[in-house]
Amino acid sequence: MNPLIGLLTIFFHASLIILTHKRPELKGMLSVEAVVFAYLLSLSWLACFVVMVYVAWKSQGRSSQLLGMDEAFLTAIDNATQRLQLMCTSLEFGLLGDLAVRSTWARRSEFEDCAGMDYDHYNVRY
């Protein structure tokens, strides 16, 4: 589950960077789609974190053996990589959640500033 969400996160950031570079007047992160996708990615990272905590809790005390290697060595590696993955997953949840919330605030303040004006957000001529 984490690799799929990681690829979606990379795609999200890359598309925003390309959109901002090609059309800076569109203000890519302030679009509704980008904000909604940021919230969805943040919730997906939270779901990954909850699943990982559940799996770590259920497998507590069990050790695996691979190709006859020492169980203590494998357990130490498993614990270290699992801790790193838990830290990175919770960090991604926090970062994307912060990005989504700040984008929502920016959208609200931008539209409140232009409430009385006839303002076209994308500068599109009809």
Features:
126 residues, mainly alpha, 0% strand, elongated
Describe the 3D structure.
The protein is mainly α. The protein is 72% helix and 0% strand. This is Chitin synthase export chaperone.
Secondary structure blueprint with pairings:
Blueprint: H1 2-22, H2 32-58, H3 71-113
Order of helices and strands: HHH
The helix-and-strand class reads mainly alpha
The figure for the number of domains is 1
Count of runs of 4 or more consecutive helical residues? 3
What's the N-to-C terminus distance? 44 Å
Strand residues, percent:
under 5%
**Helix content percent band:** over 70%
Low-confidence stretches: none
Question: What's the mean pLDDT score?
Answer: 77
Number of strands: 0
Categorize the overall geometry. elongated
Radius of gyration: 21 Å
User: Quick one: biggest sheet?
Assistant: none
Give a brief outline of the structure.
The protein has one domain. The chain contains three helices and no strands.
